[in-house]
Design a protein that fits this description.
7-stranded mixed beta sheet; single chain; Rossmann fold; 493 residues; 2 domains; 9-stranded mixed beta sheet; Dihydrodipicolinate Reductase, domain 2; alpha/beta; binds 6-O-phosphono-beta-D-glucopyranose; globular
Length: 493
């Protein structure tokens, strides 16, 4: 049975808490996964009573929980909510917080601290917590949950890690990459390691290349301040896309415990061929969305978005070609791309196989042999598909592309959000879906040379129309003419 704890949210009235954390906790409560006595303490600057916070949370849940708010669950959930008014930079607020926790019998003394605050404040808050004696585990566990981005580059990530470790041990730190909480991302492991038939094919002898695409039709929304400093490479590729790559490429782990899994992921990241400064243009591409049309409506260009400097060359689209120099993958290109304001919201891992060694059907009506693909749809459509060729019925030798669907492929109505899984793991002390520092460090090393080069070359950036599949010019990343971005789960190549 899970032990009751106090889940403290720093940044309680921010966007992440409102849109992700509170709905996820509500869903866990609805699924009867939260123990009696589990409390949620919002830490914020507003001068609010518990009742103000409860009302705020109930309003935030409206329209954000599956199937609408259930009266009984809401009553139970409301009773778990407490508010603490304090300033994140004030040491005395942390002393008061400790006293409140010591004195309130309804706030269990096992504590999870969730940093739903700007990254620049992580180190400071962890220090203030420790200063008030709140990192000390004498009377119950203490866990610190850190959101991405973890640092701004390899150097700043190391500095942040060093500061966190002054007061919290590695065991206490949970670094979130919410992609690891997505059902289909976890399914990559099941798909690979629970199905023996794939393993002999999963290597450089049979696989031509791998593509990982994350596209969004939305723009940067109200996040100009954050996004313009960060850009697409840091925002998505350094974290989520590289994590997906490690799951596709890793060796079978010794077991599914946290360290065995992470050891294998780190090996993949360490084996990625470094992109030298001279090779940046051949391996990386960046672009920015210009005005265009999305869902039939005119969409602004990035430079017209509120809060974006008119000269900004921050990339809203980034693509990379990577090679993993190990026995399994040497010379198989892994193409990664992500972009805002693209034609569709879609995350897909697409694995293309090589052509059969002999074109046996060349003299028939089969004009072109299509290679096999395995398609792992991460979102919005969750699916596993195998694309292959079969003969059409009839006298002629004609083939067409067929797709074998495995898994639920959109038929399941059972959906959970990544945060539900991850928050439960924090409460249950399961770190397997959280990042160890060396993973983050190696992921920064992969992208750092590109970031450095882009930072110094700030005078020009390609553009693509909002609502398109991105800049046409990045075909230059592909090794051969028969490789191209795959935009759909249904394409027939
Ligand atoms: C976040 C990025 O980590 O992931 C956002 O900061 C991005 O820019 C988001 O939109 C995508 O997550 P999801 O779960 O909506 O695919």
């Amino acid at each position: 049975m899970v032990e009751p704890c106090t889940f403290i949210i720093f940044g309680a009235t921010g966007n992440l808490a409102r849109t992700k954390l509170l709905p996820a906790l509500y869903h866990l409560d609805q699924a009867q996964r939260l123990p009696d006595g589990f409390s949620i303490l919002g830490f914020g600057r507003r001068d609010w009573s518990d009742e103000d916070w409860r009302q705020y949370v109930c309003e935030a849940l409206e329209g954000r929980v599956r199937g609408g708010v259930d009266e009984e669950v809401r009553t139970r959930f409301r009773a778990r909510l407490r508010f603490f008014s304090g300033d994140l930079t004030d040491p005395q607020a942390f002393d008061r917080l400790r006293n409140t926790l010591d004195e309130s019998s309804d706030l269990p003394n096992k504590l999870a601290f969730y940093m739903a605050i700007p990254p620049a404040e992580y180190a400071e808050v962890s220090q203030l917590l420790a200063g008030a004696g709140l990192s000390n585990e004498e009377h119950g566990w203490r866990r610190l949950v850190i959101e991405k981005p973890f640092g701004y580059d390899a150097e700043s990530a190391e500095a942040l890690d060093e500061r966190l470790h002054r007061n919290f041990s590695e065991r206490q730190i949970f670094r979130i990459d919410h992609y690891l909480g997505k059902a289909m991302v976890q399914n990559v492991l099941v798909f690979r390691f629970a199905n023996l038939m794939l393993e002999p094919l999963w290597n450089r002898n049979y696989i031509d290349h791998v593509q990982i695409t994350h596209s969004e039709s939305l723009g940067i929304g109200g996040r100009a301040g954050y996004y313009d400093d960060v850009g697409a490479l840091r925002d998505m590729i350094q974290s989520h896309l590289l994590q997906m790559l490690t799951l596709v490429a890793m060796e079978p782990p010794a077991s599914l415990d946290a360290d065995s899994l992470r050891d294998e992921k780190v090996k993949v990241l360490k084996s990625i061929r470094p992109i030298t400064r001279k090779a940046v243009n051949a391996h990386a591409f960046r672009a920015q969305y210009a005005g265009g049309t999305v869902d039939g409506e005119r969409a602004k260009g990035y430079l017209e978005e509120e809060g974006i400097p008119s000269q900004s060359t921050t990339e809203t689209y980034a693509s990379l070609k990577l090679y993993i120099d190990n026995w399994r993958w040497r010379n198989v290109p892994f193409y990664l791309r992500t972009g805002k304001r693209m034609a569709q919201r879609s995350s897909v891992i697409a694995i293309r196989f090589k052509h059969p060694p002999q074109q046996l059907f060349r003299q028939t009506q089969i004009e072109k042999m299509h290679p096999n693909w395995i398609l792992l749809g991460i979102q919005p459509q969750e699916c596993i598909r195998l694309q292959m060729l079969t003969k059409e019925p009839g006298l002629e030798m004609r083939v067409h592309t067929t797709q074998l669907d495995a898994s639920y492929c959109g038929t399941s109505t059972y959906h959970t959000d990544a945060y539900e899984d991850l928050l439960m793991d924090v409460i249950e002390d399961d770190a397997s879906l959280f990042l160890r520092y060396d993973e983050i460090c190696w992921a920064w090393r992969v992208v750092d040379p590109v970031l450095k080069s882009w930072t110094t070359e700030r005078d020009f950036i390609h553009t693509y129309p909002a609502g398109s599949w991105g800049p046409a010019e990045d075909v230059r990343l592909f090794d051969r003419d028969d490789q191209a971005w795959r935009n759909s789960l249904y394409d027939e190549d």
